[in-house]
Specification:
Bound molecules: S-adenosylmethionine
CATH architecture of the largest domain: 3-Layer(aba) Sandwich
CATH superfamily of the largest domain: Vaccinia Virus protein VP39
Number of domains: 2
Largest sheet: 4 strands, mixed
């Protein structure tokens, strides 16, 4: 959430992604962000205590379009259950994608996680706080839609 006192941690594995983040942080003069260059699944599993997060954003995760690569997608039941366990009660889990089939997978996977409840009736309207990223801009240029999925921890 873009509140000055909120500390936000960004998880990114690849060096170019970390470089792009550093550039954005410098240009926007942000002081409330920390970057962890490591696999998100391992960080959430091994470094975060249960019920410790106010919110989680997973914006435009790699879509892995081809059916044979779908199993590499980040938003799958085991990771969602893990993330949900790290949210505080009332905390939120927000995913966004420009790949329609992945959007439906997100909605389905989050809907069956028993500790989460949908904040909307299906897909959520785009909240003001979600920034327009390079990946979203590319999707818009290609004529893709964008879908937001926002659930709350019970
Ligand atoms: C399609 S890009 C979107 C980046 C950004 N969220 C945006 O909207 O512009 C997906 C990013 O997720 C990163 N990524 C993929 N798998 C990851 C993982 N397991 N842990 C951390 N980062 C990961 C990739 O390196 C890539 O930079």
């Amino acid at each position: 959430m873009p509140i000055a006192t909120t500390i936000t941690s960004v998880l990114e594995v690849h060096v170019p992604g970390v470089g792009a983040l550093c550039k954005q942080i410098a240009e926007r003069e942000l002081s409330n962000l920390r970057i962890c260059q490591h696999d998100a699944v391992e960080v959430v599993r091994d470094m975060l205590p249960e019920a410790s997060l106010d919110g989680v954003h997973v914006f435009f995760p790699d879509p892995w379009h081809k059916a044979r690569h779908n199993k590499r997608r980040l938003i799958q039941s085991p990771f969602v259950a893990l993330l949900a366990s790290r949210l505080k009660p009332g905390g939120y889990f927000h995913c966004a994608t420009d790949w329609e089939e992945y959007a439906h997978q997100m909605l389905e996977v989050l809907s069956v996680e028993p500790t989460l409840v949908n904040s909307a009736d299906g897909f959520a309207p785009r909240p003001e706080y979600r920034p327009l990223t390079k990946f979203e801009n590319r999707g818009i240029r290609l004529g893709h839609g964008v879908w937001d999925v926002i659930f709350r921890k019970k």
